[in-house]
Specification:
Blueprint: E1 2-8, E2 15-21, H1 26-30, E3 31-34, E4 38-44, H2 50-59, H3 64-74, E5 81-87, E6 92-96, E7 105-109, E8 112-117, H4 124-134, H5 141-154, E9 164-169, E10 178-182, H6 188-199, H7 203-211
Antiparallel strand pairs: 1-2, 1-8, 2-9, 3-4, 4-5, 5-6, 7-8, 9-10
Length: 225
Amino acid sequence: MTFSIAARCARTGQFAVAVTSSSPAVAARCAFARAGVGAVTTQNITDPRLGPLALDFLAQGMSAEQTRAATLALAPHADYRQFTIIDSAGRSAEYSGAKTLGLHAAATGVDIISAGNLLANEGVPAAVVRAFTATSPGDDLGTRVMTALQAGLAAGGEAGPLRSAGLIITGDVAWNIADLRVDWHDTPLAELAGLWTLWQPQMRDYVTRALNPASAPAYGVPGDL
């Protein structure tokens, strides 16, 4: 029901997750990232508890592979789960249980992992990785992962229609500097791309407003002089 990308920017140290699904509100339960620590997806028959659990293991200094083993040791009904992990060094790991739905696959590259289930074909995650790898490291990480996720759709995507999508990005603060969601739409990736185009030029302004509002740009809302 889902395919995803988790990625790291070697230039900035940011992490991002982008995910899309035929189910509603996919990003609310499948996408997890923590600044300076890593990123995780948990999908298929989703257990959202696995995202924070895996991030806690990464925060303790475990590698992606070690985190996979530690998470599986505590994961109930592991045969139903599919998850991906990328750590602070850009290393990645993936697990797809025996009861992962339909055609499922995963692919990895430098600072990137993609996985999916109920796919139209097993080449979708590899198409995501190729597209991410072909992007410029100088581009915003959000732009790079959105380009890659759209390449997954062009390669076939899910076996059924997509209905929701989401994007999260970490920065150098404790909260995610991007958390964009399309919870139900006929073309969720196109909608998400539009949200990213809107948010990207303002993203760092909102961090400044939180940390030092006196030096922040104008708010751009009615009544703001």
